[in-house]
Design a protein that fits this description.
It holds the Pfam family Xan_ur_permease. This is NCS2 family permease. By secondary structure, the chain is mainly α. Strands 1-4 form a two-stranded antiparallel sheet. The protein has a two-stranded antiparallel sheet with strand order 2-3. Helix 8 packs antiparallel against helix 18 and helix 10 runs antiparallel to helix 16. The longest helix has 30 residues. The protein is globular.
Length: 484
């Protein structure tokens, strides 16, 4: 091995973890492709093309975040934080804007304050998360989680990302409430696979499944590339076009065609446009504090749950399901909220799509460095990264979900005090589109069932605290109404 290779191998412990440099690079590429959609989706959630846009996310003063600027800072922060996490924590867990937090900002927080003030709350959230990690509290909670719940979290994340893939590809769709049906979701369009993008997705799932069964090296990456080529051919022939809410048979986010303009200088003017304490002045200390509490609890456990699942899937945890040196990882992940808020990209956290790279064999932070570098390149190649439609990347999420669900084998379902909390943890994640919700329900039910069955002494003291916090988290709406 050449000198640079030896340096990388030694620093990232590549050989020690049973990997190779080429495997890490391939894993980093697959992770980027699987999560690159965030550079398209985050601007659509936080930003708007114009004030006249019917879906404009205006703040309390009617201001909006321009889409192109949000896209630029989304790629910038994802790139920087993924690299830092890889170098410092040495885990293949890429970081980008968290979908739960950005939706909370757009729908709940921004209408009450200005966008700079909303991002200021995210920065405060990040500072609190980092302090909790530095004091060891976050690590203590991480290690206090029972091994059965850790396995349930990993399996639940597998179900969650598979569900994301199914929904993003249009294979599973929401049924309008106006239909008067009791079924919230259905298959395709009116129960049929009626769109070319969904056909592409099905082809991708089967292709990647075959490649994994055949143990083809780089199977997921090959599958994504082949499926993207098929999508581009179909688009060229059938002119499917984007969905845009009015064309249910169109591509969900990106159209698989080479754009007219491949690049340009990114607009990073949103960096630093933040007001740390402005929200406390505008809406009051109590209301702002409750918003921060919601952000902290969602961030705290979303990342913890994701790292638990990814660590177990990568085989990096010990016999108790704990990650070695997790403290450093939790500090860096918390810093993602500070940097993301400071750049107006929303809180950045560990992404579940990193499981795609792990399935390709990624085991070290080198994969993260590769993913981060690709995000930084994406800033200058906008919108080249959007050539890969979500329907071509989503199959990887389904395949990885199938791999992660295997963690249920470590759960003792013969004990109902274990089975019910584990089951609730797993199903609540996909059904509510939130890892934190699944963890919260699992914690609360674990404490209640074990206390009621005479196992109160076996409940870790921190679990009582966390369960109580989740009770407050789930009832923050009524609490806010009662106090205002």
């Amino acid at each position: 091995m050449a000198a640079p290779g030896k340096i990388l191998d030694t620093y990232f412990k590549i050989s020690e973890r049973g990997s190779t440099i080429s495997t890490e690079i391939r894993g980093g590429v697959v992770t980027f492709v699987a999560m690159a959609y965030i550079v398209v989706l985050n601007p659509l959630i936080l930003g708007s093309f114009s004030a006249e846009d019917a879906a404009a996310k205006t703040d309390v003063l009617g201001n909006i975040l321009p889409v192109n600027q949000v896209a630029a800072v989304t790629a910038l922060v994802a790139g920087l934080m993924s690299i830092v996490f890889g170098v410092v924590a040495n885990y293949p867990f890429a970081i980008a804007a968290g979908l739960g937090i950005n939706s909370l900002l757009a729908v709940t927080i921004a209408p009450q304050v200005t966008w700079p003030e909303a991002m200021g709350l995210v920065v405060i959230d990040g500072v609190i998360i980092v302090l909790l990690a530095l004091t060891g509290f976050r690590t203590a909670v991480f290690n206090a989680i029972p091994s059965a719940l850790k396995s349930a979290i990993a399996a639940g994340i597998g179900m969650f990302i598979a569900f994301i893939g199914l929904v993003d590809a249009g294979f599973v769709r929401r049924i309008p409430d106006a239909a008067g049906t009791t079924v919230p979701v259905g298959l395709g369009i009116n129960g049929s696979i009626a769109s070319w993008p969904t056909v592409v997705f099905i082809f991708g799932v089967l292709l990647m499944g075959v490649l994994v069964v055949r143990k083809v090296r780089g199977g997921l990456l090959i599958g994504i590339v082949v499926t993207t080529i098929l999508a581009a051919i179909i688009e060229a022939v059938a002119d499917v076009g984007p969905s845009l809410g009015t064309n249910p048979k169109g591509w969900n986010l990106s159209i698989p065609a080479i754009p007219d303009m491949l690049g340009g200088m990114p607009d990073l003017s949103l960096v630093g446009d933040v007001s740390i304490f402005g929200a406390f002045t505008r809406i009051g200390v109590l209301a702002a504090s409750l918003l921060v509490f919601t952000l902290v609890l969602a961030n705290f456990f979303d990342a913890m749950g994701t790292m638990t699942g990814l660590g177990k899937e990568a085989g990096l945890t010990d016999k108790d399901g704990n990650l070695p040196n997790v403290g450093r990882a939790l500090v860096v992940e918390g810093a993602g909220a500070i940097v993301g808020g400071g750049a107006s990209a929303s809180s950045n956290t560990v992404f579940v799509e990193s499981a795609s790279g792990i399935a390709e064999g990624a085991r070290t932070g080198l994969a993260n460095v590769v993913t981060g570098l690709l995000f930084l390149v994406a800033m200058f190649l906008t919108p080249l990264y959007s050539v890969v439609p979500i329907e071509a990347a989503a199959p990887a999420l389904v395949v990885v979900g199938a791999l992660m669900i295997g963690q249920v084998r470590d759960i003792d379902f013969t004990k109902f005090s274990v089975a019910l909390p584990a089951f609730l943890t797993m199903i609540v994640m996909p059904f509510t589109y939130s890892i934190a919700n699944g963890i919260g329900v699992g914690f609360i039910s674990w404490v209640v069932l074990h206390a009621a069955s005479g196992g109160i002494k076996k409940i870790h003291p921190l679990l009582w605290i966390v369960a109580a916090l989740f009770v407050a988290y789930f009832t923050v709406g009524p609490i806010t109404d009662a106090l205002t």
